[in-house]
Design brief:
It is a single chain. By secondary structure, the chain is an all-alpha fold. It folds into 4 domains: 102 residues; 83 residues, Alpha Horseshoe (Serine Threonine Protein Phosphatase 5, Tetratricopeptide repeat); 102 residues, Tetratricopeptide repeat domain (Serine Threonine Protein Phosphatase 5, Tetratricopeptide repeat), CATH 1.25.40; 70 residues, no CATH class. It contains 24 helices and no strands. α14 runs antiparallel to α15, α20 packs antiparallel against α21 and α21 packs antiparallel against α22. The N and C termini lie far apart (94 Å).
């Protein structure tokens, strides 16, 4: 018998192996190689990371380093990778409102208004839940709610982002929102040296001055931009923001009204202008803003909200409530819509309809504070202390971590002059709930 050496044995075995086994071995080696490379190289380039998203395990991203981590992807315009990093950080910090607003701003920059609004509404609801409830006996002045500045900055940035037409402008929006001012200054200087970039560059310089709290310089830059391009909605809006920071409300309103005329479909701009008119009790002007937005976006609930609230302020409940009802029809799953409708009903003493609207709002958002507060207040106004107490206790069974339920229950017990005298402990309240 002839013996075979190692080489002959391997060669013979290779010839005997079926083709599908050899193909599977090659595929397995390729996959193994990709896994090894991904494991050893966690900071893959954006295109490779998107192609092999399962290569590296998720890593904790400190919030103070998040802007540095996403910066190279922003520079490359790899917005999908930026969004993935934001969502990864949000999974690790689910109650970070500013992070949710970053995601919403990114959606706005990419001209995804529905996603931006969904995320911003989530941030608003989360802010309400995280805000400490007011103390019934506190004599100190009310402090501004947490994240208020972040919400204002977000809404202003969204309006500018909606007016950003090109990829370089979108990158500049993200740089500004992430406070990467050197990159913004370099891009603004680049625009100033292009043939048609004078107005855009000056507008960007104005926004950079606003971000640096240099309001007079911002006003000058926006005015220069408007000399170069009088129909620049972004420059008019930025000028209004600067005037507001100087408490020049009339000038700000005029600038925003001009911007709204130039860009009537920009939702956040219309909402901000209507809010200015409502605060100035210029209800007719607010109604005109709502009708203009309604003509541009007839199916949008915010347009109906502006029109409805303006009609109610003008003393026209029929038109106002009809508009708010249309708002709930366009947003049947939005708790805020039913809450606003309930406020309208209650304003005109339609208690039964208001009760149903607030109940619906609380069903859609069991942790919402305002709807539960309205329901309890309606019962207390009627002197129905027991009913108010039962309502809160019943709701605690659905949402035991409601941020204000215990405060409301304390208010009810105080009104009833019971043993706890308005200052029950959580343990005592849980005993009352079980009883």
């Amino acid at each position: 018998m002839r013996s075979l050496g190692i080489r002959g044995t391997v060669s013979h075995a290779g010839r005997a192996a079926p083709w599908w086994l050899r193909l599977g071995s090659c595929v397995g080696l390729v996959v193994l190689g990709i896994l090894v490379v991904a494991r050893l190289w966690p900071d893959l380039p954006p295109r490779v990371a998107q192609a092999v998203p399962w290569g590296a395990p998720p890593q904790t991203i400190p919030l103070d380093r998040l802007s540095q981590v996403v910066a190279p992807h922003v520079a490359q315009g790899a917005f999908a990778r930026v969004a993935a990093l934001y969502r990864q950080a949000l999974a690790q910090h689910p109650t970070e409102v500013t992070l949710i607003l970053r995601l919403a701003h990114l959606a706005a920059v990419q001209h995804q208004p529905a996603e931006a609004e969904r995320l911003s509404q989530h941030a608003v609801a989360l802010t309400a839940r995280l805000t400490p409830p007011p103390r019934p006996t506190a004599a100190a002045p009310t402090a501004p709610p947490p994240f208020a500045d972040a919400m204002v900055a977000y809404r202003q940035a969204v309006i500018f982002a909606t007016l950003a037409p090109s990829l370089p402008a979108q990158r500049a929006e993200l740089w500004l929102y992430q406070q990467q001012f050197d990159a913004v200054a370099a891009y603004a200087d680049q625009l100033l040296h292009t043939q048609n970039g004078l107005a855009a560059g000056q507008t960007l310089q104005g926004r950079l001055a606003l971000a640096r709290q240099q309001v007079p310089e911002a006003i000058t830059a926006f005015q220069h931009a408007l000399r170069a391009a009088p129909d620049s909605a972004a420059a008019h809006y930025g000028l209004g923001v600067a005037y507001l920071q100087q408490q020049q409300v009339q000038l700000a309103t005029h600038a925003w009204a001009t911007a709204h005329t130039l860009a009537p479909a920009v939702l956040e701009l219309a909402h901000a202008l209507a809010h200015l008119h409502m605060e100035a009790r210029a209800f007719t002007q607010a109604l005109a803003v709502g009708h203009r937005l309604l003509a541009a976006q007839p199916q949008h609930p915010t347009a109906h909200r502006i029109v409805g609230q303006a009609w109610l302020a003008l003393g026209e409940p029929t038109n106002g409530l009809a508009a708010l009802q249309a708002m709930t029809a366009q947003a049947p799953h939005e708790a805020r819509s039913y809450y606003d409708l309930g406020i309208g009903y209650r304003q005109y003493q339609q208690e039964s309809a208001a009760l149903q609207a607030f109940e619906r709002a609380l069903t859609l958002d069991p942790l919402g504070r305002e709807a539960l507060r309205q329901l309890v207040d309606m019962a207390l106004v009627k002197g129905e202390m027991a009913q108010a107490r039962r309502r809160v206790l019943r709701h605690l069974q659905v949402a035991p971590d409601h941020p204000e339920a215990y405060t409301l229950l304390s208010r009810i017990l105080f009104a009833e002059d019971e043993r706890c005298r308005g200052t029950p402990t959580k343990h005592a309240l849980r005993k009352q709930q079980r009883a």
